[in-house]
Every structure is written in C-alpha cells, then in structure tokens.
C-alpha cells in the first residue's frame, strides 16, 4: 500500500480540519495515511517511511509556526527524497488582490528557502476565523480586516473561507505523483 505522510501545525484549528480532510480523501483513494499533529508532540514513528509527504501550516503575522521548520529539520532527508506538497493556510489566500497574493507567495517561498525544502506542489488554501479561539485584540483586528474586504462574517463566529472542492482537486492531482511502495515494504 502506498503511504503518505500528512503533518501539520494548526493554531486555531482550521489547518487541523484541513489536514484531516486531506487524510480522508487520500484514504478513500486507497492510500495509507500517517497523520501527525506536530504541536501535540505525538510520536513521529513512521514519518520517514512514506512514498509522499504533505505538510500544512497556517500563517500568523507573516510566518508559519516554528515547529513546522523543526519538523522539516528532523525529517529533511526522507522528506526531500519523495514527492511532496505544501499547504499554506491563510486568510489572504481568499483574496483576489495581487499584492495580498504576492505577500503570501513571498512568505511561503521564504519559508521553503530557509528550510531547504522544494516541494513539487505548493497550494495556498483559504483558512477560517473561529472567534472563540481568538483573544479580544486578535478578534478586533481580524474582524476589521474581513469587514474592510467586504467579507461577510458568519453570525456563529465561525467564518470559513476554505474552498473544499478546490482542495479536493489539488489532492487528486497530487495523488497522481505518488510512486508505488518501495521494495522494502512488506504490507499488502
Ligand atoms: C493572530 C493571527 C494572525 C494572523 N496573521 C495572518 C497573516 O499575517 N496573513 C494571513 O493571510 N492570515 C493571517 N491570519 C489568518 C490565519 O492564517 C487563518 O485564520 C487560518 O485559518 C489559521 O489557521 P489555523 O486555525 O490552522 O491556525 C492570522 C490569524 C490570527 C489569529
């Protein structure tokens, strides 16, 4: 069975939601998924024995969580050997404005360069705003950003901008890149 590592960092929960969705999509396609929530300090056993890798992280104040870089440092050699993809989650990914798109491109490019990682595919995924996960100041700042853009906030306090259909298309394309299991694999 072809194995795919899906590892992520999530601060308010949306990348967690996205990574679990991606894992389910891959499992439905017949892959064996090793899912790791990096910030939970879970065991990382098996992370280096996959035929492909998807890393996901969200942007906060212009950068990703440092634990994502540490993960790449720990698993760099095996990660660089197989096809990989980076899912960069942010609010700006929902924007059509050229400067906002350029800003997130710059953030992801800098991150990959600093960590010496060149994934085959990079996807900017629009995230979400979960009010209950934000402190007072964060809520005020992010609400005013959305209001200025004319994005309607959901009355429940959960404003989701993720385009799940587009994400599914991306995953389906990435799945085509995954090679057959290596000869050492004993699983059926
Ligand atoms: C404190 C804070 C700072 C943020 N900074 C940025 C940012 O610089 N650029 C951006 O596009 N989105 C920014 N966001 C939006 C997050 O990337 C978005 O809410 C994402 O869905 C969070 O994913 P997570 O819940 O997995 O952490 C910020 C959100 C918060 C709460």
Structure description:
This protein is of the alpha/beta class and 188 residues long. It folds into two domains: 3-127 and 162-175, Flavodoxin domain (Rossmann fold), CATH 3.40.50; 131-160, no CATH class. It is built from five helices and seven strands, in the order E-H-E-E-H-E-H-E-E-H-E-H. The strands form two sheets. A five-stranded parallel beta sheet has the order 2-1-3-4-5, with helices on both faces. Strands 6-7 form a two-stranded antiparallel ribbon. It binds flavin mononucleotide. Flavin mononucleotide is lined by residues 10-15, 58-62, 89-92, 127-129, 134, 138, 142.
Inertia-based shape? globular
Strand segment count: 7
Identify every distinct bound molecule in the structure, by name, code or SMILES.
flavin mononucleotide
Query: What profile does the largest beta sheet have?
Result: 5 strands, parallel
Gap from first CA to last CA? 6 Å
- Share of residues in strands: 15-25%
The tally of helices reads: 5
Number of domains: 2
CATH arch. level architecture of the largest domain: 3-Layer(aba) Sandwich
Give me the side-by-side strand order of the main sheet.
2-1-3-4-5
CATH topology of the largest domain: Rossmann fold
SSE string: EHEEHEHEEHEH
Brief summary:
The chain has helices at residues 14-28, 66-79, 98-114, 136-149, 164-175; strands at 3-8, 32-37, 52-58, 84-90, 121-126, 128-130, 158-160. It is α/β, with parallel strands linked by helices and 188 residues long.
